[in-house]
Design goal:
The protein is an all-alpha fold and 389 residues long. It folds into two domains: 214 residues, Citrate Synthase, domain 1; 100 residues, Cytochrome P450-Terp, domain 2 (Cytochrome p450-Terp, domain 2, Orthogonal Bundle), CATH 1.10.230.10. It is 55% helix and 3% strand. A three-stranded antiparallel beta sheet has the order 1-2-3. A hairpin with a 4-residue loop joins strand 1 and strand 2. Helix 4 runs antiparallel to helix 5, helix 5 runs antiparallel to helix 6 and helix 8 runs antiparallel to helix 15. It starts with 31 loop residues before the first strand and ends in a 25-residue tail after the last helix.
Amino acid sequence: MNKQNLEDIDTQDYPHLNRGLEGITAFTTSKSSIDGQKGELIYAGYNIDTLAEHASFEEVAFLLWYDRLPTSDELDQLKNQLAAERALPRPVKEYIRSTSREAEPMAVLRTATSMLSDYAPEGSGDGEQDNLNRAIAMTAKMPAVIAAFARVRNGKEMIDPIDRGSTAYNFLYMLNGEEPGEQAVKTMDLCLILHAEHGMNASTFTCRTICSTQSDIYSAAAGAIGALKGPLHGGANTAVMNMLLELDKQGDEADPVSFIKDKLEKKEKIMGFGHRVYKTFDPRAVHLRKMSKALSEETGYTKLYEWSEAILETMKSEKNIDPNVDFFSATVYYSIGIKPDLYTCIFAMSRVTGWTAHFLEQAANNRLIRPRALYTGEKNLEWTPVEDR
């Protein structure tokens, strides 16, 4: 078989070739369900709309780990565990202080998460409770890592977490150095809920693949962070915000419709639109759209929301595609004062609950993940001595 590009292969000749594993079902899971045609997202039995309206992020974390909602006592216990695990080990803080201030925040988070494995909660076993304790510890510490680096790179001192308040409350407190307002906490909490879990995406698949080798949960989380870091996965909302800031540079001449049409003519990808699974409006984007509107009115960033709506309409009319979770989350984060290059880190500090839930699920019924590849290279070539090449 002569060497050839994958694009040139007729997949009808190879019925088992599914590029990107599209259409392949490799697992069973109780963690989430996505109906792309209906635009429906379920976490462990509960519709995302129900959770967005009623739940806290801590309740959602418990739901993903245990497949049920917590009782009042169980929720209090989880909150206490999270509060007890928030402080960062000294070597991790020293790393954050000593690393380059120009480093990518996601790269710092990935490295710090690897370091956290040296300071795991007591218990060195590989039982479900041991791994659950580690999952709780990572969920507690990731916000502290992100906030610490965000401050250090701007020449500010790290702020230690406090032993009260929610995950959202503590993150904003550690990030800004002051106790956040009720609306800001509510906004951040909802963002964490909406990003907590989303089926067999690239980072979750990475996490489960690492787990399937019987590696540890910190390695799986670090690998998942590496997958999420890419602009085709978690980095898309940063790209959305950078696009809006590029438009803003045009000043009074800024026209979002012509701006997007020009990009489309140049065959540029418009980030924040389309989804591998959803064929309609991403249900998470529905909630973020409402939040974006409310925040724009509250903070005065009305043009960002107005531009977003104009871009949405243009993409629908030109390409007939809807926005995904990344599109409106960009303006939401920007409206509450978060730098664009931190957006994917916030995604990670929420999604760690989903990753670790899948790790526990994979470990409970494990099989090594080992797909095959279609070889497209040449075979049985004649050897040529190095002096004759």
